[in-house]
Amino acid sequence: MSVSRRLTRRAADDDAMSLRRVNVAILVLLAVAFLIIVQRNLLNLNDFLRSENPDAVPGMILPFESEFSPELRPDLVRTGEMIPVVITAAEERLGAVVAAMNSVYQNSKANIVFNIVTMNDTVDHLKVWMTKTKLNNVKHKIIIFEPQLLNGKITKNPQKLDSVKPLTFARFYMPVFIPDAEKAIYLDDDIIVQGDIQELFDTSLKSGHAAAFSDDCDSASAKGIVRGAGNQNNYIGFLDFKKEAIKKLGMRANTCSFNPGVIVANLTEWKRQNITNQLEHWMELNAQEDLYSKTLAESITTPPLLIVFYKHHSSIDPMWHVRHLGATGAGNRYSPQFVKAAKLLHWNGHYKPWSRTSSFTEVWDKWYIQDPMRKFHPVRKHAGDK
């Protein structure tokens, strides 16, 4: 074979090899493009399935699950620092939660996100109330609380079980519900906010303090006499100072107590000090040794908080927690002018504005939104209420 023929064949072979390489490269690119298209379609399908069944994928580590509300319309988006508000939603008190959230939202332009802690059997009812009323544009996250979390931490005494409401302990677990938040507000459901919640959120906490509360000696609202319990504004009203575990703490029995129905929490400090673990320790010890006062008339969530935060908490402005509106004689204790000037009203006590006879129900009525499912109905026993 001549040299020219060999060169020609070699050139042809080189061209064929180059063509094959080009073809392989094209096939690889096509395969990559195909995979990208498949991935995008799968992601779109996943998003679709989530939108169709948002409960299918839990949003938080068990035992808690969460769901975020849809994005707000651009014209309704609030700007500024996010203010996380934690509030509980028991089925029999959903109307209270709705009124509380409505009052908070309507009286502020702040960027509020409600973290609503509830039970599995209440979620559907709550969702309807949040989506079928004017609360449908309120940023919120629904968090499911698992009562198994309290195993071994609450009493097994059948005579006391009626007073144990699992959701009342939700405030102990705020860093779990909102792990990325540095600061948060906890609110009981029997409150109405008349001021701008931004002001409460801006409460200054002293260095090293994980929470701020309203001291029970800070204003006229603190001097309540609870039937069967005497003066309920000091530590002896909540703890049994005859028990050795309480004696060892060296706390003064006449120390002014505080009300945990409103909490401004520094969650960074809360986590650093392992506050939740400390609270659980005292819950477990009480279940074993019965450390609480026998005359205790208030929530059993208060005593462990009193122990853990003994002389180590900041204070909330008294006008941001005017309380005992649910106690006997509240209508005589407060003038209408004072109630109107208060930034936050708290109906702690036996008489709630949506149930039995209570004072200043007209204030609560202003913020209540009727239940679209018609399950919750405010019950009034005095003339003039509709």
TrEMBL record:
State its location(s): Membrane
Q: Which Gene3D superfamilies match?
A: Spore Coat Polysaccharide Biosynthesis Protein SpsA, Chain A
Stretches that traverse the bilayer: 21-38
Task: Tell me a GO cellular component.
Answer: Golgi apparatus
Q: Does the keyword Glycoprotein apply?
A: yes
Q: Which InterPro entries match?
A: Glyco_trans_8 (IPR002495), Glycosyltrans_8_dom-fam (IPR050748), Nucleotide-diphossugar_trans (IPR029044)
The principal location of this protein is membrane
Q: Which Pfam families match?
A: Glyco_transf_8 (PF01501)
The UniProt keywords, alphabetically, are: Glycoprotein, Glycosyltransferase, Membrane, Signal-anchor, Transferase, Transmembrane, Transmembrane helix
Is Cell division one of the keywords?
no
| GO MF | UDP-glycosyltransferase activity
- How is the protein disposed in the membrane? Single-pass type II membrane protein
- Family to which the UniProt record says this protein belongs: Belongs to the glycosyltransferase 8 family.
Query: Which PANTHER family does the entry mention?
Result: GLYCOSYLTRANSFERASE 8 DOMAIN-CONTAINING PROTEIN, GLYCOSYLTRANSFERASE 8 DOMAIN-CONTAINING PROTEIN 1
Official protein name in the record: Glycosyltransferase 8 domain-containing protein 1
Q: Which organism is it from?
A: Salmo trutta (Brown trout)
Lineage runs:
Eukaryota, Metazoa, Chordata, Craniata, Vertebrata
